[in-house]
Design a protein that fits this description.
The complex is a heterodimer of chains A (about 120) and B (about 120). With about 120 residues, chain A is an all-beta fold. Chain A has no helices and 11 strands. Chain A is globular, with a radius of gyration of 14 Å. Chain B is built from no helices and 11 strands. In chain B, the strands form 2 sheets. In chain B, strands 2, 4, 5, 9, 10 and 11 form a 6-stranded mixed β-sheet that branches. The chains are: A mainly beta (about 120), B mainly beta (about 120).
């Protein structure tokens, strides 16, 4: 089955710890994205990558880091510098630059719910 | 600051009625518009997208776009209790952050369909 997987589904972090959220896709999409969703809020873009070995900061990149070493994978690290990391984290992917931007549609993984203890 | 505005709701409609969800956006240069449905505790799933003025129908769903008024809406005909969810409007902000494909999301409208 083609799709986007995220793991773990639930993650608990102690203060001062770094944690890494996994995102994998087998849709052969070039572009991948990380969003954060807080209760009653819209999705806010953390980082995005249009191609392997390249990524850009979104609106709220402080305290987060990413890598894009493979087309299929876009892991997100939540560092201890992120002051309020408790949130629902969503990974998405889209075809990317090989299609007209007008049609570039994002599809979401199931999400990881991170709680800081 | 590019913005997408939605009424947070809740919007309550009886089963079988038409639910009308509205969204306005601030960037006149926006060109494609997406509706996602998000059940409580789940991730957003795409319902449909639209990029031309007018109506686009897909089953019980109709998206309506009016670029002059910077307004996009989603109509759900014959609403069912299973349609109860939060509906997110997203706008493609080409040039936003210098990259295509980046979406700006509204906060969503919570829809409740009563049996």
């Amino acid at each position: 089955d083609g799709g986007i997987t995220q793991s773990p589904k639930y993650l608990f972090r102690k203060e001062g710890q770094n944690v890494t959220l996994s995102c994998e896709q087998n849709l052969n999409h070039d572009a991948m994205y990380w969003y954060r969703q807080d209760p009653g809020q819209g999705l806010r873009l953390i980082y995005y990558s249009q191609i392997v070995n390249d990524f850009q900061k979104g609106d709220i990149a402080e305290g987060y880091s990413v890598s894009r070493e493979k087309k299929e994978s876009f892991p997100l690290t939540v560092t201890s510098a992120q002051k309020n990391p408790t949130a629902f984290y969503l990974c998405a992917s889209s075809i990317g630059a090989t299609t007209l931007f007008l049609y570039d549609t994002q599809y979401f993984g199931p999400g990881t719910r991170l709680t800081v203890l | 600051q590019k913005e997408v505005e939605q009424n947070s709701g809740p919007l309550s409609v009886p089963e079988g009625a038409i639910a009308s969800l509205n969204c306005t956006y601030s960037d006149r240069g926006s060109q494609s518009f997406f509706w996602y449905r998000q059940y409580s505790g789940k991730s957003p799933e795409l319902i449909m997208f639209i990029y031309s003025n007018g109506d686009k129908e897909d089953g019980r769903f109709t998206a309506q776009l009016n670029k002059a008024s910077q307004y996009v809406s989603l109509l759900i005909r014959d609403s069912q209790p299973s349609d109860s969810a939060t509906y997110l409007c997203a706008v493609n902000g080409k040039g936003y952050g210098g990259s295509q494909g980046n979406l700006i999301f509204g906060k969503g409208t919570k829809l409740s369909v009563k049996p």
